[in-house]
UniProtKB/TrEMBL annotation:
This is Uncharacterized protein. It comes from Chryseobacterium fistulae. Pfam families: NMO. One of its GO terms (molecular function) is nitronate monooxygenase activity. It comes from the Bacteria. InterPro entries: Aldolase_TIM (IPR013785).
Length: 138
């Protein structure tokens, strides 16, 4: 069973106790079997630390939390970032080619606010394990 960070288990438990009917868990699924991330992106995701997570508009023109790389570092403080959707369209080919070449320096790898071990199990197993873990601490 995957041991999720305290962040997820405590936040999910608190949300449930406050009467929430749902909970967003997107970032825990980033490395799942069903994820569209390629193996080189999943590998990079497994090696991040909190200092490497930045809020950036460099790929899309809208703020998103992602793993810093050469492209973000070059663009972030420049005056060359267009508003969404123009920046997103402008960087689309760069991201597609970089992904095909397994080049982590020019792809956007988004990450949530909680860094942990990202499981490569199926989404179904990840979610079931999260539920079991939360229910075991109630």
């Amino acid at each position: 069973m995957v041991n999720f960070s305290r962040f997820y288990t405590q936040t999910l438990l608190a949300s449930k106790q406050l009467g929430a009917q749902g909970f967003q868990v997107g970032s825990i699924l980033l490395a799942s079997q069903e994820s569209v991330l390629k193996p080189f992106e999943k590998e990079r995701l497994q090696k991040i630390n909190e200092k490497e997570i930045v809020l950036t508009k460099s790929f899309s023109g809208r703020y998103a939390r992602g793993i810093t790389n050469k492209y973000i570092q070059m663009m972030e403080n420049s005056e060359h970032i267009l508003p969404y959707p123009y920046q997103n369209k402008l960087t689309q080919k760069l991201r597609r080619i970089s992904k095909a070449l397994n080049n982590v320096d020019f792809v956007s790898i988004w990450a949530g606010q909680s860094i942990h071990h990202y499981s490569e199990q199926s989404t179904e197993n990840i979610l079931k394990n999260l539920i079991v873990e939360v229910e075991s601490i109630q």
